[in-house]
């Protein structure tokens, strides 16, 4: 079940807004489709992001997939756990498996993304 307090993209990323910070990750559906994740390539702190643009990639035993940011802004933190333990994305995609934190340049962007119910309808995982 996808948490109701997040917003989702059709590219299978999520964002949780806390004040002026957007915490970004991949969905349970994405990690399930990818299979065992073995490597994550993330942007550096200070990098600018633009909604819908690639910010890195996730490599699994099956494929490499681009990561797209659901919101625009500046990367203020990268999850340090993923460098050593990328498999956290498989075991806890909505918790300790977050990817980056972004200082939002347009806080209204998140409200235009899919709700949990809309995302579940999109992926057929209701």
Structure characterization notes:
- With 126 residues, this protein is an alpha+beta fold.
- It has one domain: RNA polymerase II/Efflux pump adaptor protein, barrel-sandwich hybrid domain (OB fold (Dihydrolipoamide Acetyltransferase, E2P)), CATH 2.40.50.100.
- The chain is built from four helices and nine strands, in the order βββαβββββααβα.
- The protein is globular and about 35 Å long.
- 35% of the residues are buried.
- The model has no long low-confidence stretch (mean pLDDT 95).
What structural keywords apply?
126 residues; 35% strand; single chain; OB fold (Dihydrolipoamide Acetyltransferase, E2P); three-stranded antiparallel β-sheet; alpha+beta; 4 helices; six-stranded antiparallel β-sheet
What is the fold's blueprint, element by element?
Elements: E1 7-8, E2 13-18, E3 21-26, H1 28-34, E4 37-41, E5 48-49, E6 54-60, E7 64-68, E8 73-78, H2 81-84, H3 88-91, E9 100-104, H4 116-123
Antiparallel strand pairs: 1-2, 2-3, 3-9, 4-6, 5-8, 6-7, 8-9
Query: Helix/strand/pairing class, anyone?
Result: alpha+beta
Q: Could you give the count of β-strands? A: 9
Q: What would you say the CATH architecture is?
A: Beta Barrel
- Following the backbone from N to C, one meets helices and strands in this order, namely EEEHEEEEEHHEH
Q: What's the level 1 CATH class?
A: Mainly Beta
Helix content range:
10-25%
Categorize the overall geometry. globular
In short:
By secondary structure, this protein is of the alpha+beta class.
């Amino acid at each position: 079940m996808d948490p109701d307090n997040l917003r989702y993209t059709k590219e299978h990323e999520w964002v949780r807004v806390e004040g002026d910070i957007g915490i970004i990750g991949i969905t349970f559906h994405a990690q399930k489709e990818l299979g065992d994740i073995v490597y994550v390539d993330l942007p550096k702190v200070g990098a600018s992001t633009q909604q819908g643009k690639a910010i890195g990639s996730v490599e699994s035993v099956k494929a490499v997939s681009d990561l797209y940011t659901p919101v625009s802004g500046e990367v203020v933190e990268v999850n340090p756990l993923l460098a050593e333990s990328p498999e956290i994305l498989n075991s806890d995609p909505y918790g300790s498996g977050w990817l980056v934190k972004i200082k939002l340049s347009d806080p209204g962007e998140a409200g235009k993304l899919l709700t949990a119910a809309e995302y579940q309808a999109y992926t057929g995982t209701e």
